[in-house]
Amino acid sequence: MTVRSRFFTEAEGQAVGIENAGAAGDVLLVCEHASATVPQRLSTLGLSPEVLSSHVAWDPGALAVARLLSEKLDATLIYQRFSRLVYDCNRPPESPSAMPVKSEVYDIPGNFDLTEAERFARTSALYVPFHDRVSEIIAERQANGRKVVVVTIHSFTPVYHGRFREVEIGILHDTDSRLADAMLTGAEGASLTVNRNDPYGPEDGVTHTLRLHALPDGLLNVMIEIRNDLIADEGEQANIAAFLHELMGKALASIDE
Amino acid sequence: MTVRSRFFTEAEGQAVGIENAGAAGDVLLVCEHASATVPQRLSTLGLSPEVLSSHVAWDPGALAVARLLSEKLDATLIYQRFSRLVYDCNRPPESPSAMPVKSEVYDIPGNFDLTEAERFARTSALYVPFHDRVSEIIAERQANGRKVVVVTIHSFTPVYHGRFREVEIGILHDTDSRLADAMLTGAEGASLTVNRNDPYGPEDGVTHTLRLHALPDGLLNVMIEIRNDLIADEGEQANIAAFLHELMGKALASIDE
Predict the structure, then answer these.
(1) B121 CB contacts (<8 Å, ≥6 apart)?
(2) Pick among B212, B213, B215, B221 to test the A interface (most A CBs inside 10 A)
(3) Do B135 and A3 touch (CB under 8 A)?
(4) By C-alpha distance, which of A222, A14, A17, A7 is closest to A134?
(5) Number of H helices and number of E strands within chain B?
(6) How far apart are CA B134 and CA B128, in angstroms?
(7) Strands B102-103, B106-107: parallel, antiparallel or unpaired by DSSP?
(8) Residue A59 and residue A31: Cα distance in Å, rounded?
(9) Which Pfam families match (chains A, B) (predicted)?
């Protein structure tokens, strides 16, 4: 029984969720903020049910859209089964937002004064196995001569610190903008407001997963941010997934040419 | 092939070394700075052979003394098989000295400007499996109703930043000083200079292993620092091991009473 295996109850299972593992497509979908679930041992982290079901705890709608894309693209999907408030898998352990004491305007009491042992337990149970698994999937495919395209799926709140965000879809990238550029070109004239590195970008430390898994080997990559009021129900999720599927398909085809 | 398994060559093996795994004694010996070995993929870290064999890269003599104590105490010994310069397992990932860019007066070029992917690889390959394994050993023993006493073995350089250190044995502790107190009492009048939290102490962030594995469950614990000029050869190592064995035996007996 390692720290990792003792962190969760038997019923809770482990941190990493994988769907469509045998998919043939090049795209690997990653969803770090898929879930609002807090492991039993951490109870509610001191938060109200409202905050615990809000964007503070997860990216509402992101997993649903990622699942639809997984089908459409025949893409493997890997996601984190627990809340970003326990460990934000899109942040390295040295980032204050890996186990945040505050998120937007909300204090996170369950993250106050974490001991080194508590931080280690979360790092070992949530962060390291998640990215070990992503890297394992990528390495296996590379060993088989397959291409890999890393696409992370996120959602963002329409109102942040009281300010409304006009952007509807953010196409985010780090130093490698090939896929993002192609998607932004494809989105010109679209009915949705699609912006580059908006509502935030690499300077805000949000491209950790891309930095871990795409940049070192030069894999095509993009981080997609969807305003969460646009994916509040299944119909909307299907519309956005269809939009992104077309955009990504055209972009990847244009890069292949 | 995870990040972890790909970090080392097949010949290098993995990060954690264990000796006397089936030992019946209560003490669990931990040696985080046992080795000066740098994994092949990191070459020399840009350092000269002199620096790479100095206290900068490891705690000279510590593993040898720990092995002697392992025999004398019938204690399991767990040690890190690679240099502290690759990852210092007595530091959390958020500490600047986990992957230091400078150690004493020496720049560590191989640690300059590490990417997030490089930091993750070291955290995943060296730090997490080491402490997962320590915690696993402790949990197994606790599940079997056994007592566990956590003792970490270190050495320090006699001259640091040009200043000679008078202390010969440091008995270090964090908030739980029971075993350290008993050992310091036992060392009164000894021929060696044995000091509390000297040449450094918990305020310097050196008690990470104790904080991870001993403090949460209230296990007896101590960190032993030996001036490395006193354990430069086998005869000296045997003398110091005998001294520490007696000191620890008496201290543990006095606490049991």
Answers:
(1) B3, B7
(2) B212
(3) yes
(4) A17
(5) 8, 11
(6) 10
(7) antiparallel
(8) 9
(9) FGase (PF05013)
- Residue in B2, B117, B140 nearest the CB of A212: B117
* CB of B173 closer than 8 Å to CB of B222: yes
Taking residue B206's Cβ as centre, other Cβ atoms within 10 Å add up to 23
pLDDT for the residue numbered A40: 96
CB pairs under 8 A between A and B: 82
Per residue in A34-69, pLDDT (tens digit) is 999 999 999 999 999 999 999 999 999 999 999 999
CA separation (Å) from B29 to A120, B53, B63? 20, 23, 10
Reported residue count of chain B is 257
* Tens-digit pLDDT profile for residues B171-182: 999 999 999 999
Cα–Cα dist B92/B95, whole Å: 6
Q: Is any Cβ of chain A less than 8 angstroms from the Cβ of B212?
A: yes
pLDDT band at A6 (very low <50, low <70, confident <90, very high): confident
Tokens of B235: 């005869």
Tokens, residue A209:
């997963």
What CA–CA distance (Å, rounded) separates A59 from A67? Answer: 14
Alpha carbons B221 and B252: distance in angstroms, whole number: 10
State the pLDDT confidence band at A1, using cuts at 50, 70 and 90.
low
Whether B26 and B148 have beta carbons less than 8 Å apart is answered as yes
Exposed e or buried b for every residue in A91-103, given b needs 16+ CB within 10 A?
bbbeeebbbbeeb
Whether A136 and B94 lie within 8 Å, measured CB to CB: no
Q: What is the pLDDT of residue A256?
A: 80
Categorize the per-residue pLDDT at B147 as very low, low, confident or very high, splitting at 50, 70 and 90.
very high
Out of B93, B133, B212, closest to residue A94 by CB:
B93
Given CB atoms, is A185 within the 8 Å cutoff of chain B? no
b/e B171-185 (16+ beta carbons within 10 angstroms → b): bbbbebbebbbbbbe
